[in-house]
């Protein structure tokens, strides 16, 4: 081989760099993160209203052996598992439709399938767990909670953590981790980690000055993560704007 | 395997894949999974005729699969990588990295 035919490392580096640029350009055309965040944020904020309208206080007979039996017991119920199951399933279906339509319009395939499949699978799992726990009814003092073969103490930290995990943290947060991976988005990964921290960190009753007996007690629980998701949607939407202008 | 690694990386470059535009086409198709003709043309800054020629070379080599169809009244051409195309792209990038490494090592070696 003559000297003239040997490529220089600079030229080869340029070739690899241009391939990297092309890859980034395709990824940018594939991203549509603002849409699922907008839907999930609106759904989460809607949970506040659902909590308000399903809030119910009942006087019930106290479980045997309860120290408070003499003063009577109150059962507070709030929220609707149907709202979350149906709402999240529709949100994932709408997200799949959005990405497929966008893929056709822009002329690039979409990597969103793992996100949608993870989301729907986890919504099913969370719904099954929720409906199962509703069927079990109130746990009597001294009894254990039998969850998927685990015998758990209802007052233990592990049970509380699992209770928080088998809610929006699993059905919204874990699929968002998958989305951040398929879209190779560090910004979404960061947002998801903050979201999961908010969902999984235990908040004591009466947090933000709203007592658990208030019909608006769901406000901080859903308001904070809902606003975070909506702010994320706004941020990702604005970040996509310069790209839209360039393409149009 | 060892025989291949003893060879100079230049010998491992495939002429069909190594051409700059075709390498770009394979890269975009790999990342996009499925890519439309118009997107490729814009991304690579090519004329339709030029892009068609490169696509024909890649299709003949069995590296891409081309689907033609209609969306409404609009004709659309989509292409995707075949497994052979995917392997060829990975091999090409590996050989390029090896080549850069080898040239850089050679240029930093003390001259007698």
UniProtKB/TrEMBL annotation, chain B:
<dbReference type="InterPro" id="IPR027395">
    <property type="entry name" value="WH_DNA-bd_dom"/>
</dbReference>
<dbReference type="InterPro" id="IPR036390">
    <property type="entry name" value="WH_DNA-bd_sf"/>
</dbReference>
<dbReference type="Pfam" id="PF13601">
    <property type="entry name" value="HTH_34"/>
</dbReference>
<protein>
    <submittedName>
        <fullName>MarR family transcriptional regulator</fullName>
    </submittedName>
</protein>
<dbReference type="InterPro" id="IPR000835">
    <property type="entry name" value="HTH_MarR-typ"/>
</dbReference>
<feature type="domain" description="HTH marR-type">
    <location>
        <begin position="3"/>
        <end position="112"/>
    </location>
</feature>
<dbReference type="InterPro" id="IPR036388">
    <property type="entry name" value="WH-like_DNA-bd_sf"/>
</dbReference>
<dbReference type="GO" id="GO:0003700">
    <property type="term" value="F:DNA-binding transcription factor activity"/>
</dbReference>
